[in-house]
Amino acid sequence: MKKCPKCSQILDDSATYCYSCGFTPSSSRAKPAPNQHPAASKQTPKKKKSSFSIKGLFDKIPKKAIIITAAVIVLAVVIILLSTFAGSSKKDYTLYIKDKELYFSKINDDEHAKITKSLINNSKHKNSANDDLSLYLSRYCIVSDNGKKIFYIDNVNSTKGTSTLYWRKLTNLKKEPTEIAKNVVSYQIDEKYKSITYLTLDGVLSQHNLKEEVKISENVSLYAVSNDGNTIFFVTDNGNLYLKNKDAEKVKLDVNVTDINATDDLSLLYYVSGGTLYKKDLESEKVKISTGVENIAAIYETGEVYYVKTTTSEQSLMNYIIDDMKESDEKMQAPAQPQQPYSWNYSSNSEYEKAKLQYERDKKAYETENAKYTAKLERDKIRQDSAAGPEEITTYSLFIHDGLKETALAESVYRNDYEVSFDKPVIAFKTYDPKSISKVKISKINSSYEVEEAIEKAFKNSVKQYVAIGNKATLIEHPDACRFRFSEDGKTVYFLENSYPGKDEYNLYKAGLSKEKVKNPKLYDSEVSREGFELLEGKKIKYFKNVKDSSGELIINKKSVDTSVSVQRSFFHEDSKTLYYFTNWDSQSETGVLKKSKGSEAEKIAEKVHIYQVTPDSTVYFISNYSYSSYSGNLYSYQGKEPELIEKNVSGLIPVYNRSLCKFS
Asked: φ and ψ at 370, to 5 degrees?
């Protein structure tokens, strides 16, 4: 399960961007992207290379990867909607990019002002157009809540993932912008828009108060800033954890930090140092929670923390094989092949015929013995492959600390795979029984792969599904359950179970959650698609049926909303409780019919729409009549009446959202 770090929408595991708000993370490298506010990160441990696949049987699901991403930008001609910021006093303007530069425009006037001077300064992506990366680029521009300040990037180098960071007043566009820093790869702004904390490509972390710069540290790989900008936690390349609080000097908190998580306001920090899990607030010394910890699964402001411990053992595939042919194989020799007789070697025809008859008998006996010897050689190959190692096998155990004591939830978590609620301390996980794996006789197999298949089958047959509420785990009688979606109030859980082998169709179940146990799950609906399965408002279940080519029937709480709906292009507008979506999506033209629904009949907004964005005040901006020959279309605004043309020759729409602060970057 994934959760969007921008809007907290639950996403499909395979999602490359948020279906709700459009947030798109870049590919992982070394540094975070400008204006990135990802969810608290997870560290991927170093793993030894496996010489054969037994380790993969135990460890196919990797641990959560740390979100420290490189900036990868492909320029599209885009629109940045300033009116999407809550609290803006004026909403009669837009930002858009034309001729590869960023412009400011008042919708009701003819006033236009170019903001950037050289937005993309390397030629590699100058003429590219990509919607996913347009969405990604939205994180590079921030406008203050009152609409008076804009923070933006210029001189973007998509190859290096760097840019020059600026700010300027929108109330006085004649005044030149103020350059904050060059080679910036990530930045965060405080809630009053008075300080900017940023990281450069060479790992220098600094803070700027819009007048002067203060250098904080070098060799920084990860950092988080509080809402007021006064508290900064950061980790250096060598794993040292520091705290920089207000005007005080930075303080080294710990070393060898491999995983870190914090509450939204940074008042409470959890981290793993040298395998020990600690809790640290701003006022007190660190508190040791547990030892032998590998990674943090989830933390909660109520004091609970889920985490994973690991144990390692050295095993080889031979541990799962009974070598019932060892003695006989060791004695077996390669049979001698009989020599074929020829007539000229014999003095009479009768002697030759007699020799031929004996040869046929010897040949048949040889073929029988040679088949046995060939099978012996295959078993030797199995022994050789299976004895390679020994291999280091990792076993995962799941624990919770409720603020007072530690409780073990599971000794053997299947694939280190779990799904958590982000609102209440609830976690879904699978276990397996290592003792369930019975050994295979070498006389009954033809390759080492059959052993691996037997282990895999035994694992799967022993899997059990649990949901823990706090430290109380309940067995769910659906071992193949997946995609757990927990309601915001912690009282309900939905999940899917694949009951239609070979098809993307699942049974949907619903279960109530009490304070300590999960009530008996009940079938909620059947033949549900795995795609587009999510909760709206933390309580309404949205899903699709009859999906074909990523479009199908959209359903909310068992009520059909519309048909032929694009699964990955719907957006639920929290403020107005309205669902926006595409129908009749054409993959050739990349356009469809844009509609909205608010618990009643669907309302059509426009046809031939390429991409859209909804602002907090429910204004819809969309691009229609998109042409791939020019990579452009017409930008319109919609406020319940006829759409109004805003600008022509626009290639991509970049949504800009309410900022989320205090996430590790």
From this structure: -70, -35
> How far apart, in whole angstroms, are the C-alpha atoms of residue 245 and residue 230?
6
Residue 139: both structure tokens together? 């994180």
- Cβ atoms within 10 Å of 191's Cβ, excluding its own: 14
Measured CA to CA, the distance from residue 393 to residue 585 in angstroms comes to 47
Is the residue at 400 inside a domain? no
CB 455 within 8 A of CB 470: no
Q: Where are the beta strands (DSSP E) in 209-303?
A: 213-217, 220-225, 231-236, 241-245, 251-254, 257-262, 268-273, 276-281, 287-290, 293-299
Nearest to 664 by CA among 257, 98, 287: 257
Q: CB–CB of 67/52 below 8 Å? A: no
Q: How many Å apart are CA 528 and CA 522, to the nearest integer?
A: 15
Whether the predicted model's global pTM rises above the 0.70 cut: yes
- Residue 269 belongs to some domain of the structure: no
121 pLDDT tier (thresholds 50, 70, 90): low
CB 382 within 8 A of CB 362: no
Cβ count near 274 (within 10 Å): 12
Three-state secondary structure call for residue 274: coil
End-to-end CA distance of the chain: 21
The verdict on residue 328 lying in a domain is yes
Spatial separation of the C-alpha atoms in residues 618 and 598, rounded to whole Å? 12
Q: Is the peptide bond before 434 cis (omega within 30 degrees of 0)?
A: no
Q: What does the alpha-carbon distance between residue 222 and residue 72 come to, in Å, rounded to a whole number?
A: 18
How many structural domains is the chain composed of? 1
Cis status, amide bond into 390, omega within 30 of 0 = yes
Phi and psi torsions of 124, nearest 5°: -55, -40
The most confident of the ranges 384-393, 531-540, 556-565 is 556-565
More confident position, 36 or 94: 94
Distances (CA, A) of 80 to 87, 97, 571, 578: 17, 8, 18, 22
Q: What pLDDT was estimated at residue 146?
A: 79
Distance between CA atoms of 276 and 97, rounded to whole angstroms? Answer: 49
Instruction: Name the phi and psi angles at 100, rounded to 5.
Output: 65, 25
The domain of 348 spans 317-388
Question: Over the Cα atoms of the chain, what is R_g?
Answer: 31
Q: Report the side by side order of strands in the sheet with 391-401.
A: 293-299, 305-315, 391-401, 406-410
**Residue 26 scores a pLDDT above 70:** no
Distance between CA atoms of residues 497 and 483, nearest Å = 9
CA 419 to chain centroid, in Å, comes to 12
The whole-angstrom separation of Cα 665 and Cα 662 is 9
What SS3 class is residue 123?
helix
SS3 472: strand
What are the Cα distances from residue 204, in Å, to 12, 221, 222?
35, 9, 11
Which 8-state DSSP code applies to residue 135?
H
For residues 478 and 500, what is the distance between their CA atoms, to the nearest angstrom? Answer: 14
The amino acid at residue 319 is: N
- Nearest by Cα to 427 from 580, 307, 582: 307
Structural domain contains residue 337: yes
Neighbours of 249 (CB within 10 A): 7
Contact present, 361 and 355 (Cβ < 8 Å) = no
* pLDDT tens-place string over residues 345-363: 999 999 999 999 999 999 9
Strands (DSSP E) found in 274-411:
276-281, 287-290, 293-299, 305-315, 321-322, 391-401, 406-410
Q: What percent of the chain has pLDDT over 90?
A: 48
Strand, coil or helix: 592: strand
Polymer length in residues for the chain: 665
